[in-house]
Amino acid sequence: MVKYTREQRLRAVRLYEQYDRSAASVINELGCPSRQMLVRWHRAWVEAGRDDGGSLGDGRGERYTPGQKRAAVDHYLRHGRCAARTIRALGYPCKALLARWVDELEPGQRRISRAPVDAGTRRKAVVEYASGSRTSRQIGEELGVSADVVRNWKHKMLAGDDKERAMGDDADKGGTPKSREDRHRDDGGRSLEGMRRERDEIRSQLTRMRAERDELEIELEIIRYTKELLGKGRGADPDNLTNAGRTRLVLHLADRFAMKPRDLLGRCGLSRSTFYDNGKRLGRPERDEWLLDPVRRAFEQSRERYGYRRIWRMLRDRGIRVCARRVMKLMTRHGIAHYHVK
């Protein structure tokens, strides 16, 4: 620890005031001390009435009192055992000094940020993280490492190592002695070839799980968008989705999942010719669009009890001349169905 005499401290605080309290100017001229230390010296000097340096001490002996040590250790233990948080709150000491105080006053209470982790535990952690069952932060908190370390384990295990692969090829050809292969075994005594096989298995499991996840996401999106097209009223049956609705569904899925429409036709029950024919018609206005509002109003006035024939009679009485079959198709297409009482 660097010690400063009373004269050095007094000169530093006087220059600090002379340079309009510019710590950078003082440090550039004297080469010391740090900004925090200079501010602390100046505060003590001002509180003592700008004396001749008696309040600054001679720099010999302990820099911090036992009370300051205890206060720093207590703050460290009460606030999550984070050295940076304690230093930021109190303004002292450095991390190494704080660690020494904690070991002296509270043995065994200092947090070790990174504990050694064996190869088997690392592989298990990578499988859990790659499968999505747990986050890297959760795994890191359990093992006593940071989330970045868990992600690095994954990258190292799943990424191909061209150098090791070339060494393995040379070993198969007999160009590399077995003793060199033995030197590249891990802590569990497993060879590089075994580690490669395990890595490939993990990679294949990860690929299969991602494919299953993508399939489930597509199925859920099909159900959600079909309900959106049909509405939430009674009679909204996904099997009643028209070809135009299925075409809209294919276009929506292709845009949502960045897929080609032809790869989704079989899943949505639509032929190629029907898809392209309806795609040309989507921009045209619907033929019965003007009739939908009168049908809905008549259905609501009947307290949602009339079928298409009574709705058709109500429309005819109001001067709207259309056939009953047209009203039936419109009500079926938009999920307008009366309530059956048994």
TrEMBL record:
Domain HTH-like residues, every copy: 287-337
Matches recorded under InterPro entries: Homeodomain-like_sf, HTH-like_dom
Official protein name in the record: Transposase
UniProt-annotated stretches for the region Disordered: 160-203
Any Pfam family hit: HTH_21
